[in-house]
Design brief:
The chain is mainly beta and about 100 residues long. Helices cover about 10% and strands about 55% of the residues. The protein has a 5-stranded mixed barrel with strand order 1-3-4-6-5.
């Protein structure tokens, strides 16, 4: 569901990926975060997008396996595929992230 507020504590599944906007002015960091929800046996994976100074700090301080706190809003992104169809991916746009290990 788009626009749903999420709050969770998880671990990074891979190294943070830092990029910059086309003109190089705004940092964007992509994170792959896994967490367990109470009452659900399966691990939940979320793609988390972080902007600005938090994105740069995430790249500096986080690595695969690091624990991370995320507060954000879910969004659905549509990506075109080579066969002409589209694929919908749910992402979390972070409003706040925290690094409990620091």
């Amino acid at each position: 569901m788009t626009g749903e507020q999420l709050l969770f504590l998880g671990r990074l599944g891979k190294e943070p990926e830092l990029k910059y906007t086309y003109k190089g002015s705004i940092p964007i960091c992509f994170l792959s975060v896994a967490y367990n929800q109470i009452g659900v046996a399966k691990t939940i994976w979320r793609r988390v997008i972080v902007f600005g100074k938090q994105a740069e700090l995430a790249k500096v301080w986080l690595k695969k396996g690091s624990q991370i706190f995320v507060q954000g809003i879910t969004t659905i992104q549509e990506y075109p595929l080579h066969d002409g169809t589209t694929k919908n991916i749910e992402e979390v746009t972070a409003q706040l992230i925290g690094f409990p290990h620091i």
